[in-house]
Amino acid sequence: MNLRNKKELAARTLKVGKGRIAFVESRKDEIKEAITKQDIRELVAGGAILVKEIKGRKKIEKRGRRKTGNVKKIVNKRKKEYVIITRKLRGYAERAAPQIGRENFKKIRKKIKNREFKNKKEIKKYIEELNKK
Q: pTM higher than 0.70, yes or no?
């Protein structure tokens, strides 16, 4: 008994692939009589047609989706801001180096690298505190 067309009709009706449709052997005569989508739905409700589960990993965990949009632009902007502020602070530290000494200059360079100073005002304040000591 060739039920290929019935399987295709069931797949279209249930919106699944043909591979997921399974017929119950004992009820093939009923399936053969089905003509319309409504008949197929009734057979599914009655248990004559079964829909198999999805095989593979996709069911277990969805594949990782790539981010779209302007991620690169955002990263580049943040990097440019970092470079500008870092150069400004390093230049100021370089000019203040004779006043603060070599050891303190190295500490300040590390603090600049670790983003402890947000702007020039903060580094000035820090250098003034070093000079007071």
A: no
